[in-house]
Design a protein that fits this description.
This protein is of the alpha/beta class and about 260 residues long. It has ten helices and ten strands. The strands form two sheets. Strands 6-7-8-3-9-10 form a six-stranded mixed sheet, sandwiched between helices. It has a four-stranded antiparallel sheet with strand order 2-1-4-5, with helices on one face. The chain starts with a strand and ends in a 6-residue tail after the last helix.
Length: about 260
């Protein structure tokens, strides 16, 4: 039994650029027949250009989106169409780190409160316990616990992304989906965040779904890579397999787009 499994997953979302037809809200197909299996402690990379459906797939996997078809199971339990009341006990185990750390962090809350919020929301700790745990988590992700007194705008982009990671692991999840979390960072900060994710995955037994448009970044972190194009998986394999001999033309085009060092 896989930790997280998607079978023939489909998703359609409202098409805001289209006009309603006969009163019906138009939709656009985002994902088509996606199969995915994630094991305990495994790291899978989802790669594709903007609009390929990779971020939408990530949101489906943690049930921020409800699939329109197929099946999604977590720890053997079908969660495809669970309502929010039934999903709530599972939210602590399925967490996500978003691309823009500034917009995903409450600008009016101090960092320690932000990191400790999942512990309070899921009833895992009282206020005092959550604060102590939050300071420990800041240290765990490489931040000075003194930063817990600051607000998000007082931190750098890399620091805010570490805060997002600390918040995601606060509830001891089994799965973390990281959506383009290094795309806006400089190369040295990217490397530090990737090293942090590797360490957390190893030390905490986290299963990781890492979303990126950059195959070279995913190669550093992930055990397996799934390449998406227009909502479909066109190729799957280990990093070594794809870099040594990609079969699909789209994968080869992504590889050719990787910048070469001077």
């Amino acid at each position: 039994m896989s930790l997280l499994e998607a079978q023939a997953l489909n998703l359609a979302l409202p098409d805001r650029g289209a006009k309603p037809f006969l009163g019906a809200a138009p939709t656009r197909v985002i994902l088509r027949d996606i199969d995915l299996r994630l094991e305990v402690g495994e790291s899978i990379g989802l790669v594709g250009e903007s609009g390929s459906g990779k971020s939408s797939l990530g949101r489906c996997l943690v049930r921020l989106y409800e699939p329109d078809g197929g099946r999604l199971a977590f720890e053997g339990r079908d969660i495809t169409h669970l309502g929010e009341a039934a999903l709530r006990p599972l939210r602590a185990r399925l967490q996500m780190v978003f691309q823009d750390p500034y917009s995903s962090l409450n600008p009016r809350r101090r960092i320690a409160d932000i990191v400790g919020q999942p512990l309070r929301s899921f009833g895992l700790a009282d206020a005092a316990q959550a604060r102590r745990r939050a300071l420990d988590l800041l240290d765990r992700v490489g931040l000075d616990p003194k930063l817990g007194e600051r607000f998000p705008h007082q931190l750098s982009g890399g620091q805010r992304q570490r805060v997002g990671i600390a918040r995601a692991i606060a509830s001891a999840p089994a799965v973390v989906v990281a959506d383009e979390i290094v795309s806006g960072l400089d190369v040295s900060t990217q490397a530090q965040i990737l090293a942090l994710l590797r360490a957390l995955s190893r030390d905490l037994g986290l299963a990781l779904v890492f979303i990126s448009h950059d195959l070279s970044v995913v190669r550093v972190l992930c055990d397996r890579i799934m390449v998406l194009k227009q909502g479909e998986v066109v190729e799957t394999g280990t990093a070594e397999t794809l870099f040594a001999g990609a079969r699909h033309p789209y994968t080869r085009a992504l590889l050719a787009a990787i910048p070469l060092p001077d």
